[in-house]
Specification:
The protein has 127 residues and is α+β, with helices and mostly antiparallel strands. The chain has 3 helices and 5 strands. A 3-stranded antiparallel beta sheet has the order 1-2-3. The protein has a two-stranded antiparallel ribbon with strand order 4-5. β4 and β5 form a beta hairpin. α1 crosses α3. It is elongated and about 45 Å long. The chain starts with a helix and ends with a strand.
Length: 127
Amino acid sequence: GLAVIAAVIAVIAAVCSTKGRTAVTLQYKEKNYCESLPAHIVFKNTDTLPADLDTAAALQEEITEEFRNLEVHVTNHIDPKETTELANRELNVSKNRYTDMVPFDSNVALLSKETGNPMSNYINASW
């Protein structure tokens, strides 16, 4: 759900515009590809941010539809290309705060030394 969308947005490296839609370049360790996302709102930390957030809050129906469209996009275009095997290993499951929000294997951040109980270099984080 929304957790998956947050994870996808967390790996966004650059935003570009194509044919009136927004496209996002996703960069992973050994991947670099551009997926056409459904049109969506992007908030920037500028002087207009408070007004932009107020406008978005008044558009609940549109925001809900935007998230539905993004969920469909993730299901159809991101999930088939990514795995979460490392996060879902029995050894690492207890280190995940949320079971539905784990890093993709292609962009997981690993610790330089094993820690924890059980010992592992896994941490629920991505870069």
